[in-house]
# Entry
Amino acid sequence: MITELQVPSDIRFLAVVENWLLSSLEVELGDSVDWPRQSNRFRLVLAEAYSNVIRHAHRDRPELPVIVRLELLQSDIRLEIWDQGEGYAMNDYDPPKPEDKQENGYGWLIMNRLMDRVDYKLQVDGRNCLKLEASLPPQES
# Structure
């Protein structure tokens, strides 16, 4: 299954994007997945990725759309977040240290802890792509 959603760069659409993602996964996977645990995982990852596009990539251009693409093959999920901003050079990323009590910069750490693979590509056909991948464990009996 492959599905895609295009939404405005507006935080008010976060609930729309979350509902689309979780409903799509639930329809396709049914009872084969522990939904309370997995839905919280994907909700947090999606909120971080989508809000970063709004706050950073499209900060000065809210008219630009955000494209969210979901691909599901059995229990393997690929979620892509596409933006048209300047992008972020990951080699400039310095992970925050808890002792510094830094307010920002934790998103990349959160996404990497919750997903199996995280990849960010700058300027693919004029857009940037954050790719989040995970293999879902089967529902425990």
Q: What stands out?
A: The CA atoms of residues 11 and 51 lie 7 Å apart. The domain at 2-135 is CATH 3.30.565.10 (Heat Shock Protein 90).
